[in-house]
Amino acid sequence: MRFSKQLSIEHPQSPLYWNLLLMTACTILATSLLYFDQRIISGSLAWIKPIKFSLSLGIYSLTLVWIIQFFDGHIAAIKRLSWIITIMGWIEIVAIFGQVARGEQSHFNISTPLNSFIFSLMGISITIFWISHLILSFRLFKMTSINPFLKESLLWGMLIAAYAMIIGFFMTSPRPEQIELMKSGIVQTNGSHTFGAPDGGPGIFFFGWSTIAGDLRVAHFFGMHAMQVFTLIPILILGLNGKNQSFKNHNFALRLLGIAIFGITLVMTVQALNGESIFRSTSLFQGFYLFFTIITICSLFMFSLKFNPTKEVK
Fold first, then answer.
1. 2-35 core/surface letters (b: 16 or more CB in 10 A; e: else)
2. Residue 156: exposed, middle, or buried by beta-carbon count in 10 A (0-12, 13-18, 19+)?
């Protein structure tokens, strides 16, 4: 399919293609501004967050473009959902870029009526984004014409990503210290990324994940990018067009991998909610990570035994 045709507004994937191009431009812009603007917001360089979000939305759009090519029928509905996801993503990006330009924290900031409105708008947009993602997952689940292995792999990725999006809602819950400040008439923030320490403390480079307290961004990131893992697997096995019929389905290995990745995401969530940094894991959580890592290795080994790359069926 020609790229110019895919960019046509008549194409169901066109909003996601345009979003990919826009997010690429936003990433380049934010990266450039990072070198000219050295302000610190919430403990990190101001333009780091716009870079992370534009990159993430661009990768999400690219992944969804490949997935949607296998959807049969309901073209108008798929196109509407693509537009909804794209527009909601734009709202997030405009809010984040705008707040950074103003020198304000974008997430959890309720210090003024304007900041509170922007944070609420972001919450509404990401909720609509999540619902649209779930609808696409449900449509994929109902499809019968798609290769069963491909279908199950994509479902694992989309559903784990849907769970990872829910993790974001945990972050918006006010912390006990914030509630006490609100009672005293001091309204600054509502929620945070970390549990067990305030946001903006010691963290790893670029990602900012806390090294001293629980941080839900770790589980959010890991689960969100399960979509890419479970998209890459069928690409490697079935080819870009998903039609390498010489491959004998091995759903057991796929399910092992799905359980392992979801299990790791769930353990990361529980660990963060308990106020424990993944970089200072106790023996209990180390044991869980080791267990699911072994399952992951076993599943990948099973895939390697069955993998026999052949020419794609056209």
1. eeeebeeeebbbbbbbbbbebbeebbeebeebee
2. buried
DSSP states of 4-68: HHHTSTTSTTHHHHHHHHHHHHHHHHHHHHHHH---EETTEETTHHHHHHHHHHHHHHHHHHHHH
Q: What pLDDT does 145 receive? A: 84
* Alpha-helical runs (H) found in the chain: 3-6, 14-36, 48-68, 75-102, 113-142, 148-171, 176-183, 216-224, 226-238, 251-273, 283-306
Q: Report the pLDDT value the prediction gives residue 311, as an integer from 0 to 100.
A: 46
Give the N- to C-terminal CA distance of the chain in Å, as an integer: 13
User: Residue 156 and residue 190: Cα distance in Å, rounded?
Assistant: 32
Q: For the stretch 197-211, what's the b/e string if a residue is b when 16 or more beta carbons lie within 10 angstroms of its beta carbon?
A: bbbbeebeeeebbbe
- % of the chain residues with pLDDT over 90: 60
pLDDT score for 183: 78
Say how far apart CA 169 and CA 179 lie, in whole Å: 17
Q: What are phi and psi of 203, to 5 degrees?
A: -155, 170
The sign of the CA dihedral 129, 135, 139, 142 is positive
116, with CB counted inside 10 A (0-12, 13-18, 19+), is middle
Measured CA to CA, the distance from residue 224 to residue 204 in angstroms comes to: 19
User: pLDDT digit string (tens) for 144-182?
Assistant: 888 888 999 999 999 999 999 999 888 888 887 878 878
Tens of pLDDT along 30-74? 999 999 999 998 888 999 999 999 999 999 999 999 999 888 777
Hey, which of 142-151, 240-249, 251-260 has the most confident mean pLDDT?
Answer: 251-260
Each domain of the chain, given as residue ranges in start order, spans: 1-146, 174-314
